[in-house]
Amino acid sequence: MLSVERLQVSYGKVQALWDVTLDVPDGEIVALVGANGAGKTTLLKTISGLLRRQSGAITYDGNHIEGASPPEIVKQGVVHVPEGRKLFPEMTVLDNLLMGAYTIPRSERPRRLEGVYEVFPILKERRNQIAGTLSGGEQQMLAIGRGLMAKPKLLMLDEPSLGLAPIFVEEVFRVITEINRSGVTVLLVEQNTQHALSLAHRGYVMELGRISLSGSGSELLADGNVRKAYLGL
């Protein structure tokens, strides 16, 4: 579904990604793990059109998207839920959700809303509440729900469990699995390596802007270097 080939990205004179190559097959959960500053967020921003590459190719469903604008990429079905949620805190839950639906026809929006409410019933209960007054876990649900409103075929999630209480962490990963089972492919960036690789079909380890390891989720969990560096084992 998504293929990244020899991608190089810089911030000015500082190079952030070096010849990054990875594949996200249709229907899978692919985890991208690594330490802070490894380049994971930079990769997602480049895929979604927020950053421009120096060189390399990004293809989605066989079409090159490395030169497309973010709205064009969203319309093709690639949706990015950013780190830190990036909600509109003074708007209601409902209005935040509708902001995620700007690329789909108005006639489809009520059905998309009901689908999101099925995944996150709490959002239906809180639909008229100001988003900034939600708990951290509820705000993360809203951020994911807003992404789902755009009707993604590929959902890219950047650190969805960051800063959440353990009970919400478990809920977020349960929801990711449910979303994938509904037919949405997932590219998951996550520092919670144990959780991410446990549910992923395959994974990649990024270090200093490069892919250093790849394999199935179970293979990476069993890898001695991964266990030592990221699991403390």
Written overview of the protein:
There is one protein chain. The chain has 233 residues and is of the alpha/beta class. It has a single domain, classed as P-loop containing nucleotide triphosphate hydrolases (Rossmann fold, 3-Layer(aba) Sandwich). The chain is built from ten helices and ten strands. It has helices spanning 40-47, 70-75, 93-99, 109-119, 121-125, 136-149, 166-181, 193-199, 217-222, 224-230; strands at 2-11, 14-24, 29-33, 55-60, 63-64, 78-81, 154-158, 185-189, 202-207, 210-216. The strands form two sheets. Strands 6-7-8-3-9-10 form a six-stranded mixed beta sheet, with helices on both faces. The protein starts with a strand and ends with a helix. The mean pLDDT is 93.
